[in-house]
Specification:
heterodimer; A: 164 residues; alpha+beta; B: Aspartate Aminotransferase, domain 1; Aspartate Aminotransferase, domain 2; seven-stranded mixed beta sheet; four-stranded antiparallel beta sheet; 13 helices
């Protein structure tokens, strides 16, 4: 079988080891019974659904998060990376991360992670692993699904989010 | 892992060259189009017929006294005659032109069922249906208080006929059933089913969107009351469709939409509706699309539907046998009688990921729920990958599909 190297590179960039690892072994997977905020993410294109659970403490800090549902490798890995990243952050910081990630994935390099990255430890830099979707317009929504659910959960408490 | 051995004698018809869109590369590789069940490509004759109409003949139909209007009307009505002959309807008044299968089914739900049904009546469908043969019946059920009843399918994706027949009780007003499942490719024994329904006085609508492109359809032989299909699934333009209806039923039905062309005389005291089939064709129709559909029928007739069916069956069997040799393949839909479609899962790779990887090798398949969510639910899955064939595919396409699946396995290994 012959494959053009450019294609292979693009695919490898999309399905990086970190993405495949999180897709195979999603972190914080399951329901969070003590959640104070939840939201559903629905991608009407493929019918994939995931639920995001957040526990926000009295100091407006996300003390725990989890998700459940089924989806493609990209949407599951993104949700897993999300929960890895936002646990321990303040609500305001999590919203800033949502803003940066969605801009970064939908507007090319415009959503610069650096300003937030400075005061974050390593988990945040993992989010750059999602950058591969920028070459795959049809898959951007897979990567942003969980993030829209995060935004919904923080904005409204409990409400479904869609990628549309 | 070893790849299945390729067929030595290439299975190929030269119809592929008739389709300009297939002469291109995607991501540096010749396009392999395996998504005909979603929409078929158009042969050059259709594209040129539509373009020539726009360049030379366009005017509104059924209205003008001038030359172009005559030409447009002749071409448009000529297409209706071709459609009548193609499905062997008894009369051209039975050929209602619509925007597609979806509108055809909604027309029957709203114009045939809605005025006649109420609480206690049932509309019978099956678990195999496309959303377009589910939701219009749900709507009319909600509007009237009637019940929607669903006949089950087995683990191979075949109708459980005895259950279907048992559900054909006296309170069933209508049976709506797909000819060929878009998600699984199952061919339903519609002739037998119609015969059974008619013995009990139950009118039958057949959703033929996936039937018409692949086999010879004879509505008189089927003896169904309604047969709905789309132009773009049979190599014609989008936005065109047909509702065949038995004339005696169409006569009794009120108009579906009001507007120009569907009237004989309008005053503020009332309106006299036009004759069949125009009573159901309000407003300026998709003139160029219908003329293109006529050209698509000419194209299919020039090859012969039996030749197409024979070729596609051989290619389908080759595709299924090659897919079956790929480690980790799970077929969804293994009916004895199938047409041109194979749905499958590969290892635990999500169909969306598989679709992306295949696309990057120039192989276009459909992924997801195929607008048949209840079918997916029946098999406990959220979606499948689906390869669907047409007369322009060949065994090279199948081999490229297999190669691409092995590439996906490498990415996810």
């Amino acid at each position: 079988m012959t494959l053009h190297s450019a294609e292979t590179d693009d695919l490898r960039d999309l399905y990086r080891e970190l993405i495949l690892d999180h897709a195979r072994s999603p972190r914080h997977f399951g329901r969070l019974d003590s959640a104070t905020h939840t939201a559903q993410g629905i991608n009407p294109l493929c019918g994939d659904k995931l639920s995001l659970y957040l526990r926000v403490d009295d100091e407006r800090r996300i003390s725990a998060s989890s998700f459940e549902g089924s989806g493609c490798a990209i949407s599951v890995a993104s949700a897993s990376l999300l929960t890895d990243t936002i646990t321990g952050l303040s609500v305001d910081k999590a919203e800033a991360v949502f803003d940066a990630v969605t801009k970064r994935l939908t507007q090319g390099g415009a959503g610069n992670l650096t300003p937030i990255e400075e005061d974050l430890e390593s988990p945040f830099s993992k989010l750059a692993a999602l950058d591969g979707v920028r070459e795959f317009p049809s898959r951007v929504k897979c990567a942003t699904l969980a993030w829209h659910a995060l935004h919904s959960a923080l904005s409204y408490g409990t409400t479904p989010a869609t990628t549309e | 892992m070893t790849q299945p051995q390729r067929k030595r004698s290439v299975l190929a018809a030269d119809w592929r060259k008739d389709f300009p869109v297939l002469q291109q590369s995607v991501d540096g590789q010749p396009l392999v189009y395996l998504d005909t069940a979603a929409s078929a490509q158009q042969p050059a004759t259709v594209i040129e017929t539509v373009a020539r109409y726009h360049r030379e003949d366009h005017a509104n139909v059924h209205r003008g006294i001038h030359t172009l209007s005559h030409r447009a009307t002749d071409a448009y009505e000529g297409a209706r005659d071709k459609i009548r002959e193609f499905i062997n309807a008894a009369n051209r008044t039975e050929i209602v032109l619509t925007s597609g299968t979806t509108e055809s089914i909604n027309l029957v739900a709203q114009s045939f069922c809605r005025p006649r049904i109420g609480p206690g009546d049932k509309i019978l469908i099956t678990h195999l249906e496309h959303h377009s043969n589910i939701v219009p019946w749900q709507l009319v059920s909600e509007q009237t208080g009637a019940d929607l009843v669903v006949a089950p399918i087995d683990d191979r994706g075949q109708l459980e006929l005895e259950s279907l027949y048992a559900l054909m009780t006296n309170d069933v007003f209508m049976l709506a059933i797909g000819h060929v499942s878009n998600a699984l490719g199952t061919i339903n024994p519609v002739k037998d089913i119609v015969a059974r329904a008619r013995r009990q006085g139950i009118p039958v609508l057949i959703d033929g969107a996936q039937g018409v492109p692949h086999m010879r359809i004879d509505v008189q032989n089927l003896d169904c009351d309604f047969y709905a299909f789309s132009g773009h699934k049979m190599f014609g333009p989008t936005g065109t469709g047909v509702l065949y209806g038995r004339e005696s039923l169409l006569e009794e039905m009120p108009p579906y939409q009001g507007g120009g062309d569907m009237i004989l005389e309008v005053s503020f005291d009332g309106t006299i509706y036009n004759d069949l089939p125009y009573k159901f064709e309000a407003g300026t129709p998709n003139i160029s699309g219908v003329i293109g559909l006529g050209a698509a029928i000419d194209y299919l007739q020039s090859i012969g539907m039996q030749n197409i069916a024979d070729y596609e069956r051989e290619l389908h069997d080759y595709m299924v046998s090659q897919l079956g040799e790929v480690d980790g393949i799970r077929f969804i839909g293994t009916a004895t009688d199938k047409a041109s479609v194979q749905s499958f899962l590969l290892d635990d790779i999500h169909s969306h990921d598989l679709g992306t990887i295949l696309d990057h090798q120039g192989v276009a398949i459909r992924t997801g729920h195929h607008c048949a969510m209840p079918v997916m639910t029946r098999f406990g899955i959220s979606g499948t990958s689906r390869a669907s064939l047409a007369l322009y595919n060949n065994s090279d396409d199948v081999d490229r599909l297999i190669d691409a699946l092995f590439k996906a396995k490498q990415v996810f290994k």
